[in-house]
Design brief:
The protein has no helices and 6 strands. It is mainly beta.
């Protein structure tokens, strides 16, 4: 099962909860205990999408909204 999360719609500094199990996913977590990065998609030399997998429930999360970083 996969979910889409738009960074533009999140509050804070990019952290959000897994839509399925509620595990806290934070860009500051570098341990891969909660999630792991499966793929990074670039478009025109800019970050377009990151696909994560929640280690707690196995959900795949398509993280978008990186176009705001370019501004």
């Amino acid at each position: 099962m996969f979910f889409a999360v738009d960074l533009f719609e999140t509050e804070g500094r990019g952290e959000f909860k897994c839509p399925r199990c509620g595990a806290e996913i934070s860009p500051d977590d570098t341990t891969e205990n909660v999630y792991k990065i499966l793929d990074v998609a670039m478009k025109e030399n800019r970050l377009n999408k990151v696909i994560l997998e929640c280690n707690k429930c196995g959900s795949r999360i398509h993280l978008t909204g990186f176009n705001l970083l370019a501004k």
